[in-house]
Amino acid sequence: MQQTLSAGLLTLGDLNLSETQIAQMIEVPKDSKMGDFAFPTFQLAKQLHQAPVQIAQNLVKQLDTSAFAQVQAQGPYVNFFLQRNSIAKTTITQVIEQGSDFGNHTIGQQANVVIDMSSPNIAKPMSMGHLRSTVIGNSIALILNKLGYQPVKINHLGDWGTQFGKLMVAYKKWGSEEEVKQDPITNLQKYYVKFHQLDKEHPELDDEAREWFKKLENGDEEATYLWKWFRSESLKAFMKVYDELGISFDSYNGEAFYNDKMDEVVDLLAQKGLLQESQGAEIVDLGPDLPPALIKKSDGATLYITRDLAAALYRQRTYHFKKALYVVGSEQSVHFEQLKAVLAKMGYDWAQDIEHIKFGLITSEGKKLSTRAGRVILLENVLHGSVKLARNQIDEKNPTLANKEEVAHEVGVGAVIFHDLKNNRTDNFDFNLDEVVRFEGETGPYVQYTHARAMSILRKADYQETKTDITPDQIDDQTWEILKFLANFPNIIQQAALQREPSVIAKYALRLAKAFNHYYAHTKVLVADEQLSTRLALVKAVTIVLKESLRLLGVQAPDEM
Ligand SMILES: NC(=[NH2+])NCCC[C@H](N)C(=O)O
């Protein structure tokens, strides 16, 4: 279809659309009367100086339609109706032969894409925002990898800053080693909060904190020891969450890693004549549309953005990245615009390869989370609560299941990840644990359950791949619904990659699962007639694509649940 469209489009005018770009535009209409696939013409109107409806009509006249059952213009769309039988045979055969490789592409040519993700702050709890960054970043890495890119997942830990001075003072005054070892995050946080409760009335505390931070910067033995220890205890606690999520990183180079790389950045900025003094501080002016970037404070301390500049330089040198993605909440938009702007001013053309992958807030009862208002969601409670709810559902639906513990974990954790990824990433969404783990509706467990159900059909039939001989004769509407989705999977992956949007895959998986359940409700799959092996092959293909969709989101697909 891409080839046909590509050839047809060339006759309309000077359009520079690659087949990949065309693939990314193709849609599967919700109403099958509008075709199996549809090609929208809106986006071409400007370039061609024609109305979309006109373009659709002209295009249809130019297309070689011999490979299709029917091609027609309907409003601003070109609708394609495929030859069901031939598509059925090729699609099912392809999916089964390629297995989880179905949809793979070499477009990425092994180029490195650096993904800055998760990046929680030492001695503080990991927030729901950090969870979003972790699961979105992980899924984007998996999607890009499927297209032949080499993702490099970097956890840019918040492990440096004046807060460590405060923490050291607080720990030495009110802390204990046992407490920190037992529950590092809760207790370190507790000391820090106590410091802030007292420092208003005891300003000498702030002086002590400054001294401790200075000691740390100067490599003092005790300060360094404490810092390393806080860092490693916190990291251990974070690792537990990452282990539960099944997510790993290629690097944990956090802010502190760039300590000895800051001078170079400041020198470079000075050499290029970009540094200005402003009230004792050093800034880079970024014109009327952006606030200036604060590079060095009047006391000589460098800032968040200075570290990000050093990190960008380091990553470019180390990985020669094709793209550098920063998966960070929308509230940091200005920071990343500044980062790009400073790098562009420094004359690095790779500044344009930096992308801020924004995401929205998680709310509770429609309101922003707030520790003070008591609207907090603790990550650990979410994961454990979700696994527990999944366990209850399994006990109810499948009490004799063998590895309940393991499956409950895969379902509970998968539910949380899926719930996050099914929304457009920039949308805010409300968190309600009961909703997350439901086996019906638009949830991860629903997709997992559909996969497990399809697997159980194959088990009952004692399906052997070698028996596959596909001879579809009549393809009814329910079957066709599934086939269409299967055939479109490669396009879906490319769409998700281009938009950096895992929700494209999550929504696709929901639609495919729904189509399968619809089919299953209408079809006696296991009846022994001459179409049995074709039906089983279809079911097999569905299990492959559902499982691969879930994998790309970072969600497991148990065979039974
Ligand atoms: N390179 C970066 N700035 N990454 C994001 C860091 C996020 C930061 N630690 C925070 O919690 O807000």
From TrEMBL:
SMART domains the record matches: Arg_tRNA_synt_N, DALR_1
Gene3D superfamilies named in the record: Arginyl tRNA synthetase N-terminal domain, HUPs, Isoleucyl-tRNA Synthetase, Domain 1
Annotated EC: 6.1.1.19
DALR anticodon binding domain ranges (all copies): 447-561
Cellular location(s): Cytoplasm
GO BP, sorted A to Z: arginyl-tRNA aminoacylation
Arginyl tRNA synthetase N-terminal domain mapped to chain residues: 1-82
Family: Belongs to the class-I aminoacyl-tRNA synthetase family.
Subunit note: Monomer.
Protein name: Arginine--tRNA ligase
Gene responsible for this protein: argS
